[in-house]
UniProtKB/TrEMBL annotation:
Residues 8-265 form the Extradiol ring-cleavage dioxygenase class III enzyme subunit B domain. It is an enzyme of class 1 (oxidoreductase). It comes from the Bacteria. Its EC number is 1.13.11.8. SUPFAM superfamilies: LigB-like. Pfam families: LigB. InterPro entries: Xdiol_dOase_suB (IPR004183). One of its GO terms (molecular function) is protocatechuate 4,5-dioxygenase activity. Keywords: Oxidoreductase. This is Protocatechuate 4,5-dioxygenase beta chain.
């Protein structure tokens, strides 16, 4: 049977990859615990030896423009090329191998459970997916050591799904994963945030206090986070910090009781609070 071997929440701000490169030559003491946590998360994840990463992210208008916005989409492709985000395709990013069998197992279970997913059989993926993959598996590589199943959430065009709905989608995907008959080791990675706002009068807004409380509540009190309205996310975390609802898909996939492995926070990375948390099912 499949086993969920890791749950991770992590920022996907593009500047995270070059930022971590600048820290590579430093000692853990020089980096500080908030930055070291990103290195430790990757090392710990690789030790869990996952075969597949179910990765929850949002497209930022690279592959899915406002012309076509699915609320929830699960990828079911053989492979996912990196998207062109305006500067051409980054040839240093290898294609991401897919796992269509696992994708269809999720889709076949989650749609009858009441989540009317869109399905992506040909799609490119943007920095929402590749920033966490680079941060956790290393930025410079010829091929990725895991397959991916992308789960795409609309956090761009109103109305976006509620945190509660994201949590419940995660619970439905979790049930599907637990019934997958193959001996597949699955890592679940929720991405986005932490607090940031890239536009309007509050551009540059960061709320460190909220981010730190989110990092502990995503482990111990996800129900509290699922109860927050989208307006509260925008108010507390900024208009783009509202991406944090995607961490609740990850948390819903995990068991209700989890053990925290590590967490860390560094501010700022670009114009965001950057955070990471890792957990295992109890
Ligand atoms: C930026 C982009 C993101 O998608 C995000 O979540 C945070 C920051 C950026 O371009 O700085
Ligand atoms: Fe983003």
């Amino acid at each position: 049977m499949a086993e969920i071997v890791a749950g991770i929440g992590i920022s996907h701000v593009p500047a995270l990859t070059p930022f971590l490169v600048t820290q590579e030559q430093l000692t853990p003491e020089e980096r500080g615990s908030g930055v070291q946590a990103f290195f430790d998360a990757g090392e710990w994840l690789r030790e869990q030896n996952p075969d597949v990463a179910v990765l929850i992210y949002n497209d930022h208008g690279a592959e899915m423009s406002l012309a076509l916005v699915p609320t929830f989409l699960v990828g079911a492709a053989e492979e996912y090329p990196p998207a062109d985000e305006g500067n051409g395709i980054d040839s240093s990013i290898p294609e991401f191998p897919g796992d269509p069998d696992l994708s269809w197992h999720i889709i076949d279970n989650v749609v009858p459970a009441g989540f009317d997913l869109a399905v992506g059989q040909k799609m490119a993926v943007d920095h929402g997916l590749w920033t966490p993959m680079r941060a956790l598996f290393g930025g410079h590589r010829e091929q990725w050591p895991v397959k991916v199943v992308p789960v795409v959430v609309n956090v761009v065009q109103q109305p976006t799904p509620t945190a509660r709905r994201c949590f419940e989608l995660g619970q439905a995907i979790g049930q599907a994963l637990r019934s997958y008959p193959e001996d597949t080791r699955i890592a679940v990675i929720g991405t986005g945030g932490m607090s940031h706002q890239l536009q309007g009068p509050r551009a540059g807004y960061i709320n460190e206090e909220f981010d730190r409380s989110f990092l502990s509540r995503i482990v111990e009190a996800p129900e509290e986070l699922a109860d927050l309205t989208n307006a509260e996310y925008v108010h507390l975390a900024g208009s783009e910090g509202a991406e944090l609802v995607m961490w609740l898909v990850m948390r819903g996939i995990m068991n209700s009781d989890v053990d925290e492995v590590l967490s860390g926070y560094h501010v700022p990375v670009s114009s965001t609070g950057a955070g990471v948390v890792a957990m295992t099912n109890r």
